[in-house]
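pinned: reference chain
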Amino acid sequence: MSVAAKGAPLLSRVVGYSVAIANNAGNIIRDIMKKGELGIVEKESAQDLQTEADRAAQRSIITALQKYFPKSTIIGEEGEEEVKDLSGQVFDPTADSSVSGITCPSHLTSVAEEELVIWVDPLDGTAEYTQGLLDHVTVLIGIASGGKAVGGVIHQPYYNYQNPGSKLGRTIWGIVGGSVGGMPLTAPPDGKLIVTTTRSHSSSTVNDAIAALSPTEVLRVGGAGHKVMMLLEGKAHVYVFASPGCKKWDTCAPQAVLEAAGGVLSDIQGKVIPYHASAPHRNSTGVLASAAGQDHQAFLTKIPQHVKDNLKA
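pinned: its C-alpha cells
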C-alpha cells in the first residue's frame, strides 16, 4: 500500500512523495551528465559551483513539492529563479508506491502542512559531480517542523556506478523517532576512530578540531549528504566540520535520517541547528555528527575551546 493512502500522517506522505521526487531528480542529474553539457557557473567562489543539473533538479523537486504541499515553506539552494513554474510539466510522485512502512511517531502525526519547512539541495557535491567523483553526489530533501529536522530523504544517483551492470541509485529516508529505510545500517568498526571531513574547505580550525579527536584515519570527501552516509554505512564514526561553510539545505535531510537511525548531529558547540523558515541559511557554527552508538558528548568535549570560540553565530 502506498504511503499516500488515505489516513497516512502528513509527514509520512511528505517523506514518501519526496522519495519519488528525489528518484526523479536523480534521473535528471544522470541524463545531463550523459549529454556532457553541464552548464557550469560560479556562485560565491570557484569552489562554489552550479550546473544545469543543479538547476533542472531543483525545478523538478520544488515544483512537485509546491503542487502537492502548497501550504509548506520550501527553500532551495539555487534561489528563487529556479522555482519558476514549468507550465504543467510537474513531476507526479503519486504513482510511485514502492516505499511502505514510513512510520511517524505520535507527537508528529498531527503536524499541519503550514508548519513544515522543506530544505532542498538538488545536487549536494556539485564540485565533485563536475570532477567525476560521482559517489560523493546526493540529492537532499529535509523536512523541519518547529525549527527541528524531523524527516529527510537522501538519494544517491550514482550508487553502484563503479559496478557495471548494476542498478544505479538508491534512496534512504527517515523520520526522527519513527522509521528509517532504504539501506541496511552498519556500525563503524571497534578499536578505531575514523573521522570524515571536508575535502575542499580545509583550514587550521578544521584541522585542529580533527587532531583533537586523535583519529586513526581521516577521510576527506565531498558533500554533507555523502559524509553522513559514511556514518550510516559504518565507514566512519564521526563527521567533523569546524567551519561556517555549509548551509541548512546541506544538513537538514542528513540530520533527520541520521537521528532516525540513532545518531546525533549538532553544531560544533553541541547546540541544536535551527531550521525555522527565518533561520540564517549558513550554519555559521559548524557541524559535528556521530554515528549510532557513539558518544557524541565525548567528541564535543574534545573539541578545543579556541575552535568553538572561532565559530560564532
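why pinned: The CA atoms of residues 2 and 98 lie 7 Å apart. Helices lie at 10-35, 52-68, 126-131, 204-212, 224-232, 248-260, 296-302, 305-310.
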